[in-house]
Design goal:
64% of the residues lie in helices and 0% in strands. It has 109 residues and is mainly alpha-helical. It has a single domain, classed as Arc Repressor Mutant, subunit A, CATH 1.10.10. The longest helix has 39 residues. The two termini are 22 Å apart.
Protein backbone atom coordinates (compact mmCIF):
# COMPACT_ATOMS: atom_id res chain seq x y z
CA UNK A 1 0.00 0.00 0.00
CA UNK A 2 1.41 3.41 -0.91
CA UNK A 3 1.92 6.12 1.64
CA UNK A 4 -0.35 9.09 1.07
CA UNK A 5 1.10 12.56 1.36
CA UNK A 6 -1.28 15.21 2.65
CA UNK A 7 -0.67 18.92 2.35
CA UNK A 8 0.13 20.90 5.45
CA UNK A 9 -3.11 22.83 4.91
CA UNK A 10 -5.12 19.59 4.88
CA UNK A 11 -3.44 18.46 8.10
CA UNK A 12 -4.12 21.81 9.79
CA UNK A 13 -7.75 21.73 8.66
CA UNK A 14 -8.23 18.19 9.96
CA UNK A 15 -6.73 19.13 13.34
CA UNK A 16 -8.88 22.27 13.47
CA UNK A 17 -12.00 20.27 12.62
CA UNK A 18 -11.32 17.86 15.48
CA UNK A 19 -10.51 20.65 17.92
CA UNK A 20 -13.56 22.75 17.05
CA UNK A 21 -16.15 19.96 16.90
CA UNK A 22 -17.85 19.22 20.20
CA UNK A 23 -18.11 15.49 20.83
CA UNK A 24 -15.87 14.56 17.91
CA UNK A 25 -13.82 11.39 18.06
CA UNK A 26 -10.58 10.70 16.23
CA UNK A 27 -12.16 7.68 14.56
CA UNK A 28 -15.20 9.69 13.46
CA UNK A 29 -13.25 12.59 11.99
CA UNK A 30 -10.75 10.25 10.33
CA UNK A 31 -13.54 8.23 8.74
CA UNK A 32 -15.35 11.37 7.60
CA UNK A 33 -12.19 12.69 5.92
CA UNK A 34 -11.10 9.32 4.52
CA UNK A 35 -7.79 9.24 6.38
CA UNK A 36 -6.33 6.73 8.78
CA UNK A 37 -6.94 6.94 12.51
CA UNK A 38 -3.18 6.82 13.10
CA UNK A 39 -2.46 9.73 10.78
CA UNK A 40 -4.97 11.98 12.49
CA UNK A 41 -3.74 10.91 15.93
CA UNK A 42 -0.17 11.81 14.95
CA UNK A 43 -1.24 15.19 13.58
CA UNK A 44 -3.17 15.94 16.78
CA UNK A 45 -0.22 14.97 18.97
CA UNK A 46 2.14 17.10 16.87
CA UNK A 47 -0.25 20.05 17.28
CA UNK A 48 -0.43 19.49 21.05
CA UNK A 49 -4.17 18.73 20.97
CA UNK A 50 -5.58 16.62 23.80
CA UNK A 51 -7.32 13.55 22.37
CA UNK A 52 -10.80 13.01 23.79
CA UNK A 53 -11.66 9.42 24.62
CA UNK A 54 -15.45 9.65 24.30
CA UNK A 55 -17.84 11.63 22.14
CA UNK A 56 -20.98 13.25 23.45
CA UNK A 57 -24.29 11.52 23.10
CA UNK A 58 -27.04 12.77 20.84
CA UNK A 59 -29.50 15.45 21.95
CA UNK A 60 -31.62 14.57 24.98
CA UNK A 61 -35.10 13.16 24.45
CA UNK A 62 -38.15 15.21 25.44
CA UNK A 63 -39.78 14.35 28.76
CA UNK A 64 -43.59 14.57 28.81
CA UNK A 65 -43.49 16.03 32.34
CA UNK A 66 -41.01 18.82 31.54
CA UNK A 67 -41.90 22.41 32.31
CA UNK A 68 -41.88 25.09 29.59
CA UNK A 69 -38.57 26.39 30.99
CA UNK A 70 -37.05 22.92 30.81
CA UNK A 71 -38.34 22.47 27.27
CA UNK A 72 -36.84 25.82 26.24
CA UNK A 73 -33.49 24.84 27.77
CA UNK A 74 -33.60 21.45 26.02
CA UNK A 75 -34.43 23.08 22.69
CA UNK A 76 -31.63 25.64 23.10
CA UNK A 77 -29.18 22.80 23.74
CA UNK A 78 -30.48 20.95 20.69
CA UNK A 79 -30.09 24.06 18.52
CA UNK A 80 -26.51 24.48 19.77
CA UNK A 81 -25.80 20.82 18.97
CA UNK A 82 -27.26 21.16 15.47
CA UNK A 83 -25.30 24.35 14.79
CA UNK A 84 -22.08 22.61 15.86
CA UNK A 85 -22.91 19.67 13.58
CA UNK A 86 -23.61 22.06 10.70
CA UNK A 87 -20.27 23.78 11.23
CA UNK A 88 -18.52 20.42 11.32
CA UNK A 89 -20.14 19.29 8.09
CA UNK A 90 -19.37 22.59 6.34
CA UNK A 91 -15.73 22.35 7.42
CA UNK A 92 -15.49 18.74 6.24
CA UNK A 93 -17.00 19.75 2.91
CA UNK A 94 -14.47 22.55 2.50
CA UNK A 95 -11.56 20.25 3.40
CA UNK A 96 -12.71 17.60 0.95
CA UNK A 97 -13.24 20.22 -1.74
CA UNK A 98 -9.67 21.46 -1.26
CA UNK A 99 -8.34 17.91 -1.35
CA UNK A 100 -10.28 17.15 -4.53
CA UNK A 101 -8.84 20.26 -6.20
CA UNK A 102 -5.34 19.31 -5.07
CA UNK A 103 -5.57 15.73 -6.33
CA UNK A 104 -7.27 16.79 -9.56
CA UNK A 105 -4.28 19.03 -10.25
CA UNK A 106 -1.91 16.07 -9.80
CA UNK A 107 -3.59 13.86 -12.39
CA UNK A 108 -1.77 13.18 -15.64
CA UNK A 109 -4.73 12.39 -17.85
Amino acid sequence: MTKKNYTEEFRRDAVELYRDTDGATVAGIAADLGISHGSLTTWLKNAGIQIRRHGTSSAPRPDPSETPEQEAARLRAEVAHLRAEKTKLETERDILRSAAKYFAGESNW
